[in-house]
Amino acid sequence: MSAEFEEHYERLKARQRSERDGYPESLGLRVHRALSWLNRAEQCGDDVDARFIFLWISFNAAYAQMLSMDDRAPETAKATAFVEKLVKLDDRGSLHNLLWNEFPGSIRVLLGNHYIFQPFWDAHSSLTSADDWKQAFEVSNGFARKALGKGDTAALLSVVLSRLYTLRNQLVHGGATWNSSVNRDQLRDCTRLLGQLVPAIIEIMMDHPATLWGDACYPVV
Domain map of the chain by residue range? Predict the structure, then answer.
């Protein structure tokens, strides 16, 4: 365990054990899987690369659901819809607190980092022009600034998740070196944020077992 990152698994697992008999099957499977990967993430110590990847799997386990081949929206779009639903159900204000009280500085730094903005890499690969990515960056950050000004948790979090998703792609698709010196600060900040966000999401789902969360992805058969 690392003192740098707050741990949540033991508390949430104890709650899940006491309540799981009252969960619908799909929610029970989602929470069980998400907690298993959260547990693994919290065993990574100071290995932020591994911790981030396991946290993202935990996030995926919480929201992913089976869809037909013709109905597979981009992952970021599904995540955004999921977050909007969570914000409406967030009776504790956990997500609002994370964005506005615990991580406002880190989020502003994250939003200003074009290395985790996918259109930057599209331009670098000559798929688009430099002017295109710069304009898209301004539009995205303008949207985020409006969300900040209005206290719009769902809108801001959707932008943050899109940046985290680019970082996820860099790691999972081999676009970064393990323990690289060039991405330590952004990876550490993003891992701290995701390490708080994922447990908050799991707890909101546990708070609302009667909500329709959809069938879990790849159910046990």
Answer: 9-207
